Amino acid sequence: MATFVEVDHVDRVFDLPSGGRYIALKNIELKIKKGEFVSLIGHSGCGKSTLLNIIAGLDRASIGGVTLEGREIRDPSPDRMVVFQNYSLLPWLTVRENIALAVDEVYSGKPKGERRGIVEEHIDMVGLRPAANKRPKALSGGMKQRVAIARALATRPKLLLLDEPFGALDALTRGSLQEQLMRICNEHQVTCVMVTHDVDEALLLSDRVVMLTNGPEAHIGQILEVPIPRPRQRLEVVKHPSYYNLRNEIIYFLNQQKLAKKRQTQRLVTSHASTAKAVLEIGFMPLTDAAPLIVAQEKGFFAKYGLDNVVLTKAHSWQEITNDVVTGRLDAAQMLAGMPLLLTLGAGDQASIPVVNALNLSRNANAITFSKRLYNQGVRSLTDLKAAIKATPDQILTLGVVHPASMQNLILRYWLAAGGIDPDRDISLKVIPPTQMVAQLEAGYIDGYCAGEPWNYQAVHQDLGFVAATALDIWSGQPKQVLGVREEWAQKYPDTYLALIKALLEACKYCDDLRHRKEILELLCRPEYLDVNPAYIRPGFIDPYDRGDGQPPQELTAYNQFYLNKTNYPNRTEILWMLTQLARWSITPFPKNWLEVIERVCRTDIFGAAARDLGLLDIGEDNPIHLFDGKLFNPSEPLEYLKSLEIKHQIRVEEVFI
Fold it and tell me: In angstroms, rounded to a whole number, what is the distance separating the alpha carbons of residues 372 and 617?
């Protein structure tokens, strides 16, 4: 069904008297179908009513917008009617006159008799015939709210907006009105958006429940489908086998938000007096993805933001990076996209060390490289690989990955499983530092690997292997490297952290200007940085990419991506997908409190503050993920997505205490 209402990446920012700004809503994206009933739920201050007012046209988004049937909403209109908690009736008019006021305004061109017929129809619709000539002071609270609903429906709006319409009523009256509203909406196919604090009300009335995180910068944390058929009766809804699971899921979300608010308050109270750090030691791996760090140092972006004493420390393995961040020897580090997650979750016997990501440094620039031996056996594709494995069941191929939480590991596993190859039964995976991949391939210890550059093209250049698939073939735009810092450090030195993000944002932008690539190439190849032959870096960075498969080199302009296409925004949907893949292969259980984990790791608020200071739009898009096999990832139902995957381990779901 076509989208009826679309909330398109809406931000709402309020100017404060002090000169500052309060970001109430951040990057709200929602599509509503015709005839659908959607509830907005969340704690006080999460922006539910603000969002409803923007949809109504009573307020304007600061960024983004809302459309109704393809037309942008800019002002209030009779095609959208709002029912407020406080009734908003004129006290000197009767029930009939209050309803007629709206009907006469909207349908002024209709004959008087027809308008009167509409009024009487809606008086009967809400069961107020005996009170039709009474004024509001003679009505109960429930009757007043029925008048407000009748008045709204009498104008035949395309969209009915309800702002806690039953919040001030007693339980009996509230239940009666909920059932009347449900009946009216079912019979007349009314599209509704309702703000509520009542979990049971949301489940009774809604097709979907949209749960908002705490403010400031409130965003959609989760969307819950309510698979209870209509028409609904209250007792039947409560007896539905899904009811209590759905109810518990909403309550769990709200409780997690309450805990998050408590932690946020504690952080503000206990924050260290010093907000800047004099000397910064930042770790990096000798990969092309280190370009933003190297450029920020060599081109003066660190110094521009007051970071005059930055020491870049080259590591030889991702384990070294991990150890040095955890122990505090490093203040920050270039990390694989999944490393902050794994450290925060505390996989295996490791304690949880919350590590945050407020900046993606790079995307793509991964590839799957196989040995020339496999090439000579006719392996060119995933299908060929499966055939080769089947033909020699007594020989187990060994493939290298750089880290369990690396996108290289998760993408290689996904690619293999999509081709019907179980990565833990049909082959052997071995963790190897990226700097050792080519040597191990040459020695015959491994048959291939998934790694970043320049280690794929080096194998091609030395005629040791060929590239079977690049990141662009599997998931174009996949996150690769991020800036990781301990949460404790970020809280202790907020000014330094913000300056660091701003400096690297500028450096990332510099790196994606192709006019600078030759200069950056020279910087990367220096002995203190990558210390490699420039010929290994040029393909995909400056020159067309030769895969070593006998085909002409390819122009891969998006292969090394540092800034364009919202590279730097830390995307929650991508992080959630990584969580599903970590659970898929039993690297970690899937956290029951997955939203809490993502909110701890993914610091879009810090990214947004840095971007706004630089005059950049900090809007990011938690867009759908498109992998090569066409399988849809629904971020609202991660466990259902996991269950739908054919090749996987037994999925464990556990609450993670962080």
Answer: 46
622 pLDDT more than 80: no
Tokens read off for 252? 């769990």
Question: HEC string of 190-230?
Answer: CEEEEEECCHHHHHHHCCEEEEECCCCCECEEEEEECCCCC
> Cα(70)–Cα(68) distance, rounded to whole angstroms?
5
- pLDDT tens-digit map of 9-24: 899 999 888 788 889 9
> Which of 292, 391, 283, 404 lies closest to 343, judged by CA?
404
356 and 484 in contact (C-beta within 8 Å)?
Answer: yes
Question: Is 37 in contact with 69 (CB distance < 8 Å)?
Answer: no
Task: Tokens for 626, please give them.
Answer: 């498109």
Residue 195 sits at φ, ψ, to 5 deg, of -90, 130
The three-state secondary structure class of 316 is coil
DSSP 583: H
Tokens of 108: 């002024």
Q: Which amino acid is at 68?
A: L
- The rounded distance, in Å, linking the Cα atoms of 178 and 417 is 48
Retrieve residue 53's tokens: 């007012």
Dist CA 102 CA 145 (whole Å): 15
pTM over 0.85: no
Summarised one tens digit per residue, pLDDT across range 219-236 is: 998 899 999 998 888 888
563-618 tens-digit pLDDT:
998 899 999 999 999 999 999 999 999 999 999 999 999 999 999 899 989 988 76
Cis, bond preceding 292 (omega within 30 deg of 0): no
Taking all residues of the chain, what is their mean pLDDT, rounded to a whole number?
A: 90
Task: Name the residue type at position 224.
Answer: L
| Residue whose C-alpha is closest to residue 249's, from 220, 217, 211 | 211
Residue identified by tokens 């122990």 is 327
- Give residue-wise pLDDT tens across range 261-277: 877 766 655 554 557 78
Q: Using a CB cutoff of 8 Å and minimum separation of 24, what contacts does 626-634 make?
A: 626/475, 626/476, 627/414, 627/418, 627/474, 627/475, 628/415, 628/418, 628/473, 628/474, 628/475, 629/418, 631/418, 633/573, 633/577, 633/580
How far, in Å, CA of 546 to CA of 450, rounded?
Answer: 17
- Name the H helices within 392-486: 407-418, 437-443, 455-461, 471-474
* β-strands 37-41, 191-196 pairing: parallel
Question: How many residues are there in the chain?
Answer: 658
What tokens appear for 362 in the block?
Answer: 């790079």
Question: Measured between alpha carbons, how far is 414 from 629 in angstroms, rounded to an integer?
Answer: 10
CA distance 148 to 152: 6
